[in-house]
Each structure stands twice: as C-alpha cells, then as structure tokens.
C-alpha cells in the first residue's frame, strides 16, 4: 500500500518535471512537423504483440488509422534506438511469460525460466540505465517516465514481483554464468531419487514403501531442513518438498502413528493423581492453622455482632 | 467523672482476674450486658481457623501525617529557600532514577526469561521430535514435567523459605501499602531480588503465570529503595536524599514506582499513572501526578532503549513493553455499531467467568492458608502444579488432531509436528508449548483459520483451571497474562462461531478482534480494574480505535462480576487480614459514634515522664501500642490530665537510645541537641525496645517529651459518627485519632484497625475480629 503510494508520488514528481521541460521544447520547435508514421507503426505492432489476444484483433487497424492522424513532432517522439529497445523488451517479456505459465503447477518457475528472466532483466536495465545510446538519447525518460501509466515500468515490476516472491535468487548462481546453484541441483537429484523410489513401490504394499523409501525420504527431508536454515530455498524447492511431504504423509500415510497412547495415559494419570494425594494428605495430616483472637479494649459493649444487630433492630 | 481513666483501667483489670464488677456505671450503659458478653466469649474457643473475617495484628499504619514537633519547625526555619528548590529538584531526580532502574529490571527479566525459556523449549522440542519417530513419548512428557518442576522448585524455595511476602503478583501488597498499611518487608531489597528471580523461575517453569504483576511490585521496591538513598540490607548509606526518609515521602515515591512498573510491563505510561491513581495513592496532587508520569515515561523508554540494543537495532525506541500485543492491522480493526451489543454480551460473560475464577481461587486460598502453611509443603505444591501443567499440556497436544500448515513467515516459535503430516504443525502446541505471552500474541494476530474451535474450547477450559489453581502458590507470578490468555481464547472462539453462523460473517467477525475483546472482558472480570485497564489495553495494542469497546466491555465485566464476587486482589487483601480502608465508610454506619469505635482506655504518658514507666509500657508485649497521647497534669491540683500532644513509639525509642533524659542534660551541658536527622537515620527499621539497655539508675530519670511530641494531634469529640472519622482517616492519612471529651481529656484512641473492622456483609454491618497471625 505504502509502496504503491510512494511510486505514484514519485511518478507525479517526474511527470511534472517532464512536462515542465518538454513545454520548453515545444515552444522552441513547434513548427517542426515531420511525419513519422513508419515509426509509429512499428511501435503499435509491438504493442499488439504484447497484447496478443484474439479478442483484440480488430483493434490494431483502428489504432493504426487513428495513429496516422495523430503524430507528434519528431522531438517529442521516441528515438529509433529506444524503439528498438522497446521492441526487444516486448519480445523477451512474451518469452518469459510464456515460460512462466506452464511452470505454474508444479512450480518450476525458477529452474525453467531463469534464463528468460535474465534476458528480460538485461533489456530493462538497458532501458533504465543512464547511459546514452547512439544519437545521444537516453531511453529512460522517454520510455519509463513520460506518462502517468508508466506501462513499461509497471509491466516489468509485475514480473519482478513474481521473481522476488518466488525467491528464485537463492537458487540461481550468477557467476560465472547464470545457472542453478549446486545445492539446488543436488536437491533436485535427491528428490528424483526419492520419487523414483516411491514409484517403484507404489504398486505394492504401502508399509513396504514406508520402510524402503524411508532413508531416501529422510535424506531429502534433512537436506531440506538444512537448506531452510541456510535460507537457500526458492519456491521450486519448497513446492517440490511440500508435494513430496504430502505424498508421504497423506497419500502413503507414512507419518509416525500414535502408538504409545497407553503409556502416555498411564504417566499422565499418575501425574494427575499426585496432587490429589498431596491435598488429601495435607488435609488429613497437617494441623489446621488457628488464629488466636485478641479482644480489643473497648469502652463499651457494642462490639459484638449480636449487639450491633440489637441496636439496629 | 473525676477519674474516669482510673475506673476504666480498674474494670479492665477485673476482666482479667475474672472477678465480677460491682455494677459501677461506666461512661455509658451498664456493666450487665458487658459481663454476659464476656461469658459468651469465654465459652467460645480463643482459637479459630483462618477466615476472611479477621484483622491481623501484624499490620500497622504508615505515618503519613506530618509530625509537627518543635524539631521539625526548627529545621524548616533553618532551611533556606534554595534548600526547598533543591528538594524539589531531587524529587524529580529520584523519579527519573526510579523509572530508569525499573526499566532496567524489566529488561533483565524479559531477556533472561526469553533465553531460558528458549533453551527449555528447544530441549523439549528436540526430545519430542526424537521420540515421535522411535517411540517413548512418555519420556518426553516426564522430561518436560521434570524441567518445569525444577525451575519452579527453585522459584518456590526462594519465595517460601527466604521471603514469603514476594509470593503472588505483589499488586495486593502494593495496593495495601499505598492505602497506608505498612506491610512488613514488602519494600526491601531482598524482596526485590527474590521477586525478580522468582518470577523468572515461574515463567520459565511453564506455569500459567505472567511477569507483569511482579514488575509493579519491583517498581515499588525500587522506588522505596532509591528514594531513601541507602540500603539497610547492604549496610550502605549514600548520604543522599536524607530528607525523604519518612513515610510521607516514601509512599509518594512508591506510587511513582508502581506506575513505572506498570508502564514497563505493558509499555503503557499513561496506564501506569492511572493505575497508581485508581489502585493506590489516596493522596493525590497535580505535581505528584506529573512526577509519576515522568517516572513512567522514563521507565518505558529505558526498557525500549535497552531492548533495542538487545534486538540489535540500537536507538529504536518504538519497541514497547514487556508484553507486546503487536499491532492490529488497519483492515481487521474496523468495528461497527451492531457489534457493540455483542461486545457487551462478551463483557458480561467475562464478568461471570471472572467471578467463577475468583470464587474458586478464594476457596483454594483459604485451604492453602489453613493447611498448606509450611514452607516445604508450599514448595511441593508449586512443583506439583508445574508438573501437572506440563502433563496436561502434553496430553492436550498429544491427543489433538488439529494440524495447520506452517506459515510462510514462521510466526510459531517452536512448532511441534508430532503426529501431523510433514510440513504441518500441531495447533494445540502453539497455545500450550509456548510462553503464555507469546500465546496471547498468536491468539490476537494469527489469521483466521489458524485454530479450530475444538482446540480453543479445550484450551480455554484447561487453562482456566490451571491459572486458577496456580494463582496463590508460593511463587512470584502475576495473573494478568493468564487472564488475558483465557479471555483471548474464548474471545477468539466467539469470533469464529460468529463468523460461522452468519453467512457472510467472515467480513466483519475477525477472530483477532474478538480475541482482544474477550481478553479485556476476562481480565476485567478477574481484577475489576476499569479506567487503568482500559488505558493499559489501549496503549499495549497501540490502538485508540478500540477504546470504546474495551471500555464498555470492562464496565460490563465489572458490574456483572461485582454482583457475584469481589475482585481477586480484594479477596486476597481480605484473606491476608489486612486492615484496608476502602474509599468510603460502610453504608448504614452513621449511628456508630467515635465512642463505640475507639479503643479505650488509652495508655497515656505525662509530658515529663519517668524513663522506667516508658520502658515498661514499650516492653509490654501484650499491648503493642504505637502512639501515645501525651497529657499534662497540673501538679498539685486535682484536675484531670489534659491532652497536649501525641508521641510515637519510634520517637520514644530514638529518645531512649540517645538517652535524652532531663538529668543528663543538666549534668552535661555540652550534650548535642537531638535533631530530626537522628530520627531519620533510624528510619525505617527502628530497633526493638529489647535491644535498648536502660540501667536501673537511668530508670529513675525523667524524660521531657515537649520538644518531640506532635503538639497538635487531630482530635474528635466522642459523638463524631463513624463516617466522619473515616473520612478524616482516609483523607489525611491518619494513624492515630484521639477522642477527647469536652474538657480535652483523652477518653479513647481510634486507629486504622478500629475503623477497618466494620464492613458491610450479607447480613448488614459486620465486625471483623482481631487476631494474632
């Protein structure tokens, strides 16, 4: 909530700054009207690619015809270079989303899609970097902060959120090149061993499965607990472990059974019996504490309750 | 009428010898009814089992009233304007110190409890995990029980054998102290040490107790110690704050200390001040309030500061209180007009349950006083309670089928899996396998669906009885947190049920909100505080929005609870036979006059009295009087002695110790004149009369009391009604009130015990009996 407000606030700040600057620009070069329809076309097709939905099919034509009518002077339009970047961004965005959706269940968003996220991230960093590209233009302002919506920023932020939430960073090693960490790979290997063990005994007796796969499962569980302590878990591992645990405890019913009910009941009833003995024995054997009454010196005899009541009645 | 005093003393002698009187008319009425009463008294046994209708002789009053004798006037004359300024400044310094030290103690308790409890739960958890798999959980049960009992044993031994006054929460004792009763040893350093260690032991020992009540007592002890600038236990005198060495000043500081304690315990500075106001100081003024507030603030922020260092973000002052109820999210906070009746109903339920709690605890306490009075038995009882608490908790956890998935942010400190599926934890264990304070927090803040109703119901039931059983053991422990916990459990249960009976209930019936309301209702139903409790709860949750519901709930709980049974603290005060003066004299007591209330005859001293007489009076063990009216007899004339002042036992002892005799003064002209300082140095532990040696020659000397006595004691005529006398006592903090006749002759003396013995029982006005305890 707070973050959101903050972002909106900053956006407002940037917007007003930009409007102020561009106002000057407009004043200077208002006469310079050059048709840039080609450029607009590419950008609109890129947008269409992003929103690649059949329902919106007729939209591009309409958009196109409208776009032809409304062109801005060149200096207000984005440069070729930025357009190129935007295009690449769109493509990579699509790739990443395409990768994410099938990896939703069972969760494999880190192991399957880390490379596409990386390339998307690269592009975004290019866009948002301060460096000027060819033609002495920085795309940061023109692509990211020119409007209230800040679509590029918003789009990227959504995906970035997914990435952070899934905690993929702890499973990905960045140097020398992007790959899963050895811990993760090892975990996945162990997981596969456990699952294949499950598969092997699945047909037969469940108790057999429980005894035979116990070591594998235990090993996996311990590995997981270790990683949990080191904070090197990403959603893939967590989910895989969760599913395995569910298989183990719910489907195969291998959790520890409640076996020693009798012993526990015996011990606890013994414990509960102790205070009864204690109180009974202290009631019977401890001598009752008596208080010695003192008769205060009084001038008169109104002190007893009887007399008070006499007087009141 | 010439020699009334003589006649009275003569008739009292006849009582002792058993001889029948001659029917001499006394002041009023005849001898006849008196005799019959005496007979009936003799028929009864002199010893009775302990009950609530007794007043103990061991409690005395504080000397709140200033003794305006000549020494005092002299000192005041000598003191410069600057001196008074310095006094005022040092009062502020003392309050700051009180706050600081109380905060430090709170911090110490908090950290040690957290560490020790962490170790304990870790050990038990590992043990349970090991045995879940291979069998042998009964061993874990025994381990848990033994660990609990060991901690509690240590706590109970130090309390039962070294300082029994440190038992319980300490709030009743502080309440009595602030009411003007001198409870022996209640504000000593030893008590503080035992209290702090004891509360650590009992909380770590897993009893159903909290550490908040003892904090209030600790704050009070700190205040009493710091303000005196010395420690008699450590035999250290720092030679500072000597002016504050009397009951008046000390009691004001103690009220500041109690406030600082509350404020440190709950992170509620305003609540602390109001607590002092509601429970304590009968003598209240603006400056005192302001100073108390200062002490509370310092205490809270000292605690916050040191806890921030402990939590490794030094300088963060926003981490309040020993108990941290956590913040309520803004969305779940909303409540609506239609929920108010529900809240009030919950308040009524809290009042009922509170009354039940108090009723059970009352009988338990009577049983304890009568039968479990030996220290070793008390230690055994405490250990048994600890073991049973562990057993019951374990059994509950063992048989619970309520499994919940582990949350992503691991709110559970020590999740126990037991027989749950992997990746899930036992929900009963979050309630039982935790320090009570954390359980309260998880009941308040865990999202809906964390507990299922059966778990909560069972938890409420068992914890109710456990907490009721635990309070009153010989361990130092408070009742705040257990009450909050019981209330939070059934409050949450109400929330869940409400959400389930209404179709779209989940929108408004947030279980955390109802847990808070339930907690308030239960606590209000047990301790019956209103104003201070509302503010404490509001401050502890950092949420003013709930002010109105909490207030309504507490009011309802108090009204409903008072209909059935008194508050827990009042019950315990009564059971300790403390001569406690309530706000008002009992209704329907106007017909009682000072003549009937007062003690008579009075042992009076002459203004110039023989040393031997004084020593004899003081040494008489059967009459442990503390104040003696000083009378003057015109020599040679036949006129009876008239009242001219009042002198206290403590003053006489100091005089005897310094041998301020007329003859000696004559022989040694250079002898140093006694000053007020000499009286202060002896305060507060005046030596007993037996330790003062008076030779046979000195017994024949005379003592002139003129300089030392309070020349203007408060007096009332003998026809003054009881409520008037009561008001004087309550408003002025009197200790002795002399009853005189129209010729200023002493005919009686009213003390606190004479007033406190009247109380309104079920059958109208009843009278408590004095007893030796």
From TrEMBL, chain A:
Q: Does the keyword Membrane apply?
A: yes
Q: Which UniProt keywords apply?
A: Membrane, Signal, Transmembrane, Transmembrane helix
Give TM regions.
262-284
Query: What do the Gene Ontology cellular component annotations say?
Result: cytosol
Q: Which Pfam families match?
A: OSTMP1 (PF09777)
- Read off the InterPro entries from this record: Osteopetrosis-assoc_TM_1
Question: Which residue positions does the secretion signal occupy?
Answer: 1-23
Q: Which PANTHER family match?
A: OSTEOPETROSIS ASSOCIATED TRANSMEMBRANE PROTEIN 1, OSTEOPETROSIS-ASSOCIATED TRANSMEMBRANE PROTEIN 1
Identification of the protein by name: Osteoclastogenesis associated transmembrane protein 1
In its UniProt entry, the species of origin is given as Sphaeramia orbicularis (orbiculate cardinalfish)
């Amino acid at each position: 909530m707070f973050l959101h407000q903050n972002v909106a606030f900053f956006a407002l700040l940037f917007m007003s700054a930009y409007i102020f600057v561009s106002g000057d620009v407009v004043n200077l070069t208002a006469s310079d009207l050059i048709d840039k329809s080609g450029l607009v076309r590419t950008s609109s097709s890129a947008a269409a690619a992003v929103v690649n939905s059949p329902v919106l099919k007729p939209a591009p034509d309409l958009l196109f015809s409208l776009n032809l009518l409304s062109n801005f002077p060149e200096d207000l339009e984005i440069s070729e270079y930025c357009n190129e970047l935007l295009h690449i961004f769109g493509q990579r965005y699509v790739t990443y989303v395409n990768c994410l959706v099938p990896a939703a269940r069972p969760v494999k968003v880190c192991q399957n899609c880390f490379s596409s996220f990386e390339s998307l991230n690269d592009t975004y960093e290019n866009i948002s970097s301060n460096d000027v590209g060819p033609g002495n233009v920085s795309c940061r302002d023109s692509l990211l902060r020119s409007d209230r919506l800040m679509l590029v920023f918003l789009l990227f932020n959504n995906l970035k959120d997914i990435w952070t939430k899934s905690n993929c960073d702890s499973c990905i090693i960045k140097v020398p090149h992007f790959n899963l960490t050895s811990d993760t790979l090892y975990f996945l290997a162990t997981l596969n061993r456990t699952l294949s063990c499950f598969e092997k005994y699945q047909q037969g007796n469940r108790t057999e499965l429980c005894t035979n796969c116990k070591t594998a499962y235990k090993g996996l569980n311990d590995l997981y607990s270790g990683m949990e302590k080191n904070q090197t878990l990403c959603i893939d591992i967590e989910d895989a472990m969760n599913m395995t645990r569910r298989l183990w405890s719910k489907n195969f019913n291998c959790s520890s059974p409640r076996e020693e009910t009798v012993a526990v009941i015996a011990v606890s009833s013994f414990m509960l019996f102790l205070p009864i003995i204690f109180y009974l024995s202290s009631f019977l054997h401890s001598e009752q504490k008596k208080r010695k009454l003192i008769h205060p010196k009084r001038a008169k005899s109104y002190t007893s309750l009887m007399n008070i009541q006499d007087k009141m009645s | 009428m010439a020699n009334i005093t003589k006649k009275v003393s003569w008739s009292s002698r006849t009582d002792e010898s058993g001889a029948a009187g001659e029917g001499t008319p006394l002041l009023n009425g005849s001898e006849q009814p008196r005799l019959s009463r005496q007979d009936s008294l003799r028929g009864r046994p002199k010893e009775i089992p302990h009950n609530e209708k007794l007043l103990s002789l061991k409690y005395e009053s504080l000397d709140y009233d200033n003794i305006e004798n000549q020494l005092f006037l002299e000192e005041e004359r000598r003191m410069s304007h600057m001196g008074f300024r310095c006094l005022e400044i040092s009062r502020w310094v003392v309050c700051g110190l009180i706050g600081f030290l109380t905060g430090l103690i709170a911090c110490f308790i908090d950290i040690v409890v957290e560490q020790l409890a962490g170790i304990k739960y870790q050990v038990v958890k590992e043990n349970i995990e090991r045995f879940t798999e291979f069998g042998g959980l009964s061993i874990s049960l025994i381990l848990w029980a033994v660990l609990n009992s060991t901690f509690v044993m240590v706590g109970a031994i130090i309390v039962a054998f070294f300082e029994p006054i440190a038992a319980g929460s300490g709030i009743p004792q502080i309440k009595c102290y602030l009411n003007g009763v001198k409870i022996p040893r209640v504000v000593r350093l030893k008590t503080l040490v035992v209290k702090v260690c004891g509360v650590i032991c009992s909380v770590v020992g897993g009893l159903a107790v909290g550490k908040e009540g003892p904090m209030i007592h600790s704050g009070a002890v700190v205040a009493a110690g710091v303000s005196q600038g010395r420690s008699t236990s450590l035999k250290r005198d720092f030679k500072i704050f000597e002016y504050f060495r009397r009951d008046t000043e000390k009691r004001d500081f103690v009220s500041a200390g109690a406030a600082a304690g509350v404020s440190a315990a709950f992170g509620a500075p305003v609540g602390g001040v109001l607590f002092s106001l509601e429970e304590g100081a009968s003598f209240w003024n603006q400056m005192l309030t302001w100073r108390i507030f200062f002490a509370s603030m310092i205490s809270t922020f000292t605690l916050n500061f040191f806890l921030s260092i402990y939590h490794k973000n030094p300088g963060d002052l926003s981490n309040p209180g020993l108990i941290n109820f956590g913040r309520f999210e803004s969305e779940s906070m909303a409540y609506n007009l239609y929920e108010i009746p529900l809240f009030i109903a919950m308040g009524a339920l809290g009042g009922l349950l509170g009354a039940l709690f108090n009723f059970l605890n009352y009988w338990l306490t009577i049983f304890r006083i009568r039968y479990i009075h030996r220290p070793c038995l008390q230690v055994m009882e405490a250990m048994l309670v600890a073991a049973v608490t562990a057993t019951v908790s374990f059994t509950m956890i063992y048989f619970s089928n309520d499994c919940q998935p582990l949350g992503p942010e691991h709110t559970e400190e020590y999740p126990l899996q037991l027989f749950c599926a992997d990746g899930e934890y036992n929900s009963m264990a979050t309630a039982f396998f935790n320090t009570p304070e954390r359980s309260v927090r998880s009941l308040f803040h865990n999202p809906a669906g964390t507990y299922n109703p059966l778990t909560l119901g069972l938890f409420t039931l068992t914890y109710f009885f456990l907490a009721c059983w635990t309070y009153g053991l010989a361990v130092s422990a408070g009742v705040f947190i257990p009450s909050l916990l019981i209330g939070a459990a059934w409050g949450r249960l109400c929330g869940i049920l409400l959400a389930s009976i209404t179709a779209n209930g989940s929108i408004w019936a947030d279980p955390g909100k109802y847990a808070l309301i339930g907690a308030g209702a239960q606590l209000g139903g047990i301790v019956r505080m209103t104003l201070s409790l509302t503010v404490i709860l509001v401050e502890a949750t950092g949420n003013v929005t709930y002010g109105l519901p909490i207030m309504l709930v507490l009011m309802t709980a108090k009204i409903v609870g008072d209909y059935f049974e008194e508050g827990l603290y009042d019950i315990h005060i009564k059971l300790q036979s403390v001569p406690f003066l309530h706000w008002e004299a009992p209704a329907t007591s106007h017909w009682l006059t000072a003549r009937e209330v007062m003690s008579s005859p009075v042992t009076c001293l002459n203004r110039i009295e023989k040393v031997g007489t004084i020593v004899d009076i003081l040494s008489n063990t059967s009459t442990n009087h503390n104040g003696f009216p000083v009378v003057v007899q015109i020599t040679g004339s036949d006129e009876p002695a008239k009242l001219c002042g009042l002198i206290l036992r403590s003053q006489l002892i100091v005089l005897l110790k310094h041998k301020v005799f007329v003859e000696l003064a004559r022989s040694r002209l250079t002898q140093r004149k006694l000053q007020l300082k000499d009286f202060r140095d002896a305060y507060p532990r005046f030596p007993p009369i037996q330790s003062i040696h008076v030779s046979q020659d000195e017994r024949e000397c005379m003592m002139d009391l003129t300089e030392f006595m309070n020349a203007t004691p408060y007096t009332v005529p003998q026809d003054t009604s009881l409520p008037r006398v009561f008001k004087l006592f309550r408003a002025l903090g009197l200790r002795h009130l002399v009853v005189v006749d129209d010729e200023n002759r002493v005919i009686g003396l009213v003390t606190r015990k004479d007033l406190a013995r009247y109380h309104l029982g079920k059958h109208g006005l009843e009278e408590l009996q004095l007893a030796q305890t």
